[in-house]
């Protein structure tokens, strides 16, 4: 786990595209459980904006995205039980 300051340094050093979402009261890993809808919207939106939409992701990209969001979640038009190999 890294500090908020360390996270900011990593963000500042990262190339584009990048987005930073920081909620001081959540800690490091609670976004997906405390704000599951917003977490999903942000992750899916980032992939779709910067990886040219779901068509460009292909099946493997969609499987990885589903895995990131938690295998088994219902994502309209997306695989629901995928784990990257």
Q: In brief, what are we looking at here?
A:
This protein is an all-alpha fold and 85 residues long. It has four helices and no strands.
Describe this protein's structure.
This protein has 85 residues and is mostly helical. It has one domain (4-69). It has four helices and no strands. The longest helix is centred in the last third of the chain and has 16 residues, at 54-69. The chain is globular, with a radius of gyration of 14 Å. Mean pLDDT is 75; it is low at 78-85.
Based on CA atoms alone, the radius of gyration comes out at: 14 Å
Largest sheet report: none
Q: Provide a count of the helices.
A: 4
> Roughly how much helix do the residues carry, as a percent range?
40-55%
How many β-strand stretches? Answer: 0
Low-confidence stretches: 78-85
* Mean pLDDT figure: 75
Order of helices and strands: HHHH
The proportion of residues in beta strands is under 5%
By helix and strand content, what is the structural category? mainly alpha
Keywords:
85 residues, mainly alpha
Furnish the topology, listing elements before pairings:
Blueprint: H1 4-13, H2 31-34, H3 36-50, H4 54-69
